[in-house]
Amino acid sequence: MSSSAQYTERRRHQRFLARRGESICCWIEREGCRCPLNDVSLDGFSVPAPVPLNPGQEFDFALRLDGIHDSIRGRAQAVNEVSSPEGSLIGCVFVEFSGMGSEDLKEWLTAHVISSASIRISEAEAEAIVQGPSLI
Fold first, then answer.
1. Which of 38, 94, 112, 113 has its CA 20 to 30 A from that of 21?
2. With a cut of 50, which residues of the chain have pLDDT below it?
3. Residues 134, 16: contact at Cβ < 8 Å?
4. Residue 96: which of 44, 33, 52, 49 has the closest Cα?
């Protein structure tokens, strides 16, 4: 995987921390393991590096959001590893979703933006943020 020195932003859409306050609110389930996400966007997500993924590896996942019984299922691919002060992160892109997974993810992220906003925003404003360009 590429190192942080070679890192270039791949995501076209804004990414969001997978936390509400200090609590992790978003996970993937993969091969029977529940892995907390660092961040998530319409394009992909990152997970802490101890999660065993090889460069280019595709894998099935179930994405879960705290408080929502349903999951979003699909396939993702590990694309890079980036070092951070908290430890390394593995960046993954969504390859495909099962069913309405792409639309469900957009709805989940819109709700996450609304519930995480420090000021009151409308659903239309939150959706524009979710679908907007990456600012990171």
1. 94
2. 1-7
3. no
4. 44
* Contacting residues for 108 by C-beta, under 8 A, at least 6 apart: 65, 68, 72
In angstroms, rounded to a whole number, what is the distance separating the alpha carbons of residues 111 and 67? 12
Measured CA to CA, the distance from residue 86 to residue 104 in angstroms comes to: 30
Residues 63 and 71 sit within 8 Å (Cβ to Cβ): yes
Which class for 26: exposed (0-12), middle (13-18), buried (19 or more C-beta within 10 A)? buried
Q: For the chain, give the percent of residues with pLDDT over 70.
A: 89
| pLDDT the model gives residue 118 | 87
Say what the pLDDT of residue 18 is.
79
3-state class (DSSP) for residue 43: coil
Q: Which of 46, 123, 39, 43 is nearest to 78 (CA)?
A: 46
Pair of tokens at residue 57: 């590896």
Give the pLDDT confidence score for residue 60 in this predicted structure.
95
What phi and psi values does residue 68 have, to the nearest 5 degrees?
Answer: -115, 125
Q: List the structure tokens of 54.
A: 């090889």
